[in-house]
Amino acid sequence: MSEFLLVFALAVGLGWPLGRYLAAVMRGAPMRGDGLFLPLERPLYALIGTKPERGMSWRGYAGAFLLSNLVLAIVVWLMLMSQAWLPLNPNGAPNMSWDLALHTMVSFLTNTNQQHYSGQAQLSYLSHMMGIVTLQVITPMMGLALAVATLRGLFGGRDAQARQADGQDRMPVDVGNYWADVIRPALRFMLPLCLLWSVLLTSQGVPATLAGGPTVAPVDATVEMKEQKIPLGPVSPMVAIKQLGTNGGGWYGPNSAVPLENPTPLSNLLETLALILVPVSVAFMVGPLTGRRRFAALVFGTMLTMSVASAGFAVWSEANSSTSRDIALMEGKEVRFGAEPSALWAALTTQTSNGSVNAMHDSLAPLTGLVAIGDMLINAIWGGIGCGLQQFVVYLLLGVFLAGLMTGRTPELFGRKIEAPEVKLLAVLVLLQPLILLGLTAITLSAPGLTGNSNPGFHAISQVFYEYTSAFANNGSGFEGLGDATVWWNVSCAVVLALGRYPALVIPLAIAAMLARKRQAPESTGSLQIETPTFALTLIAVIVTLTLLQFMPVLVLGPVADHLALAAR
Amino acid sequence: MNDTLHRKHPVPVPHLEAHGLRTALIDAVLKLAPRHIIKNPVMVVVWIGTVITAVATLAGWAQPGFGWAVTAILLVTVLFGNFAEALAESRGRGQAASLRRARKDLTARRLDGSGNENTVAAAELRPGDLVVVEEGQLVPADGEIVEGLATVNEAAVTGESAPVLREAGTDRSGVIGGTKVLSDRIVVRVSAEPGNSFLDRMIALVEGSNRQKTPNEIALGILLGVMTLTFLVVVVTLPFIGGFVGVEINVVLLVALLVCLIPTTIGGLLPAIGIAGMNRALQANVLAKSGKAVEVAGDVDVLLLDKTGTITHGDRQATAFHVLAGGDAAQLRQAALLASLADPTPEGKSIVKLARTKNERLDGHDGAHFVPFSAHSRMSGVDLPDGRVIRKGAMDAIARHVQVQGGVIPAELEARVADVARKGATPLVVSEGRHVLGVIELSDVIKHGIKERFARLRAMGVKTVMITGDNPLTAANIAAEAGVDDYIAEARPEDKLARIRAEQAGGRLVAMVGDGTNDAPALAQADVGLAMNSGTQAAKEAGNMVDLDSDPAKLLAVVEIGKQQLITRGALTTFSLANDVSKYFAILPALFAAAIPQMAALNVMNLASPASAVLAALIFNAAIIPLLIPLALRGVRFKPSSATQLLRNNMLVYGVGGVALPFIAIKAIDVAISALFSL
Fold it and tell me: Which of A65, A328, B72, B465 is most solvent-facing, going by the fewest CB within 10 Å?
């Protein structure tokens, strides 16, 4: 209980000032630190050929986002397939196959960090530092940028006042400058925070070196294995960014369950806190950024309620549910930490679309696994940096549509009507998730040759569904035990990763920009008040009901049946 | 809901219930035709599901008794949905039939260029033709009186049997084809093409034959469509996922699950809700030109209301003469009397009456020239043969009039006028020549209950603005007494338009009432323009609703109808989706029970058997549609209150209730059918 409370208290206490700072960074007005950061930023703007104050339409913004992703995609894919020939490879990692490189590249490009490889053995230091870590820093900032642009759109665009004054309805809405929105928070927010965290983690014993690892004799040396090479590297900076940037992809295959990535109880606390620190800060950022504190309270309150409920249930289930101590599950449990820190981590890492683990999710009690899958299906309990807010906006629009009708008015958000064109775009997102997840789960399960399961029965359904859910939610955690380094898994997951990221980021922006062009009605007692407990509860009901309706059958056949079967033994 | 809504029906239809039910039942079957059912994506899926289960049962893939039971329930589900729509339509059809009787076989006495009459069929009339109508004859086509005045019985259209006065050159010059002239002779200029008359359009609207889906209905339809597709994905993938753990799911069961999940309740009732909204407006004797107009009414932020007729009874009575210090009371009385003898307005008559009660015996002069009130001069009066010029009117108008002639305004006048105005009365200043004589006090009586109505509107977030020609002080008094939020005093017709534009520029939706030709631009500009049936053709063309009773206060009822329609849609959608959660608990254990015995733990309702569980859920799913038809037609009960309060109430009733009710109902049906058929 103490770790649970400590993590939430620290996240809220630190998230508040960080959120205010992040809002100042995203506003782009002159601020403290300009003297240090402007000289770093200016050459980057010059290189891209943009001026940070120049606004973009939503199409321009989304175009820049997709273009920057395409360029990074090509560079990283090529680097992964040729790393053996490139420098900084003291451990001699070989070139990756095209499909594994494709999956790895897409996985990191989408801020997912689903790994079908083991980092310490299959990636060179160069690939880690230039490919993986670069993407780990930049991609969460891309999500943040899209979310901030969407918020600007929801409140009429950056030029809302000017547009209103001129009556220039034909001009496209200014949602901000994409390049500035990525570069500013990366340099001013994410990198300093990562530096701090990596120093803290190094102090706990997480390796940070460019030298190759030592070779030592194991304590239980046998004839077959007289000595073992301990893989090292610049681990702690990567652990810092993987935790803080809702990334999740670790240096070592078993992630933070390995003592080298997570050596002490304090490091575990730091890493658990880092899971939700930035997502919580982003929720707090909404207030000062939009100038509407009550809206930020809705975002924060709704997310916190769901977060505490889901984490609380996970901790209870991992410690006390009837199947929590089943011997069949003991293989991957993390006995160093025990039930509470494992379950807390499992809940937070799936809520925030992070995906790092400190215990194998495959070995969680089935009901804890259910929580993890549910968190990822919702994907807006904090959610990934920016992505969580985007998904929240989708739920918000759906909730406002239903609730608005029930108050006797055509539904409107911040005074702008939600009509057929917006609902059409929302419909795409509503349909996409079950279509992809259930469709691919069905295909994979009906062709067992493809699945490579280590378990039969209900648990296998959980594994397969978890894998695609994790990919679609851009989470990246795995129900391990899946032989997932095959062409089928690599290619199908790569497609799911992209479909889980780009529509979910771009469509809310498009909707916001469409709304921004509408006539804004002033809010009255007759218009739906979204910043009330009544609406917050309605919203939670909409989120939970929608998820249940779409996925209850597969969840019943997977984790629920798993639980019932184990309990009946 | 309120007094104006259910006051009277335009057409007495005692036989409608039995007859309407019968035709609706027949229509429900006819609507099974693919051409019609395709318009409703939710019901299309049920319809296809019915065919699949029938085929599967015939092919022997399901136990025959169970298979046919499911097929029958699915077919009944589609029929119930069709029935709801047909019933809503039949409500209007009875009215349409009697309207059509009024239209047929009309002949017209058309005037040609030289003034000769020719008798022609009404269908040959074209806009611009002049026709003569005399006592006892039916008006052959919509038009405007260009000559004469007449009392007209409009019962055929409005259901109101009391005759109304229609007169050339006034704001009450419009006549409707099919109505009967009771007295006098009028010449009417035809304004409508044959087949496109007011009556024709009304019949079409009432029958719902050209009903367009409203924007919100389209948006909700998309959402329901995507939920249907989602459930299709859920159900189609289920056998593949289940197959991995040895769960074999019969195709009949899959269809049953699908039909239980897709939003059949709201899908089946959605068209009925839309038709019923227009019908409810019609019951209030408001003819909406489109369903969209009714829907928009629910969104209205500002009501522009004429004071006269809406807030006050309109016939202001003269209650006192206030002579200025040093003036002659008799002179004021006489001037007031002379200026009003030829004034036909209720105010004018009341001034004459007041003067007479004060023993003023003066008669009118022969050759006196009466100057009527005009919106621009804002005064009326009389020019007498002896050269005296008497005027009465608003202070500023009289002041200008006096000053133009070189007179001075007594310093005292302003205080006197203010005194009267402070009482909520209207001061009418009287002048003779270049002298101001005094003030007539006209008291305005505020309609009973209007203040409570405005309070209700305010609770719903609707702002009311009173429009009056009164001076600012009077206006402020009446505004305070009636409880309106704002007022425009000394308003000219163009002020209405300007105010509407200003409110709209601020993003608000505006509704207004109007009857005169000079209201037409404002009616057209307003988001909801309610034209009075007694008004001019131009006003009726410009508005998007016509009130057949010509009661301006009807606007308030229209707003409530609009809101009620949206709430009904939202509440039933919520109910429909909330139901699914409980239906899952009935059906999933039934689907998996055979292969996975542990699933019995999920059978929280403790249903008797898989077959009875599925049938109970399906029966509930079908039966809820007719059970909710009255709610769809009548609208969800709606108490004006704040949006948050409404949301809380509706979430509790339709959201929480929507989850709880099926648990109880499905269990009850299960107990009944498992006992009856020993399932």
Answer: A328
